[in-house]
What we know:
Elements: E1 2-9, E2 13-20, E3 23-29, H1 31-46, H2 53-80, H3 84-96, H4 99-107, H5 112-127, H6 138-150, H7 162-189, H8 209-216, H9 229-238, H10 246-255, H11 257-262, H12 269-287
Antiparallel strand pairs: 1-2, 2-3
Amino acid sequence: xxVDNFVYINSVQIVYSATFGNNKISYMITLELxxxxxxxxxxxxQSLVTDSPLIQVKVxxxxxxxxxxxSNSLLLSNVLLQTEDDKYIAEVIAxxxxxxxxxxxxxxxxxPINIQHNHxxxxxxxxxxxxxxxxxxxxxxxxxLKSIEGHNKLKxxxxxxxxxxxxxxxxxxxxxxxxFETSYRFxxxxxxxxxxxxxxxxxxxxxxxxxxxxxxxxxxxAVEDMKTMNDYRLLLLSMAYDLNFKYTFRIMAEKQFIQKxxxxxxxxxxxxxxxxGIKLFVENKFVS
Length: 288
């Protein structure tokens, strides 16, 4: 990557062009525009009002999850991104990545599995209707849309350029870090609300063949293959196979997410083998 044409205006606005291969891409963002995005984030979540206290709690959980993902995104951005305006872009992506999920929950017409599959596309659609969106350059709009659209996919699809891929991977890692944290708290504390994608799962000790086979093969398990809560625990462990950055693996190792979640699983041969494989994978990524 070659970066040139830096212009600083009152230490706030940053304008530059970056060359990825033969593709020249222009970017512009301001701190004022970021503040506008934050205000719209608050406004749109405050507009999601329902008569159901339970659903209102779910909406608030998605809002706070989004804020934590934005915090994780900044943590990763400080290592992975070079400019402040790149960090601004990453924050906007994180704040709005799950807004569609909150809207679908309030509408109350979809199952948890359908919400999991479809919320990213709705989030991308809704963000285009927000007041700040037309003020972004076309290149930044595409980065935001591609990142949000791809964050819930089993595998990130091939994107148009390296910059889009970087931001999409950053969101996926930041999102997973919070999912690891909040899911483990749910398993251990039980005063934490149940993760949405587990609401239709049965609380039995069994694990599904498709789930364990995916994990033993070194692949991320698919949400639609889950039947039990232990399937969800294994799916969480398998998400380590989809992490993208060494710094993410470092955080994983420091917080011992893999070990902590494994401790909530029954100790059967296949589960032990799956854990050993994932633990070794994370350790190798961290030290390589």
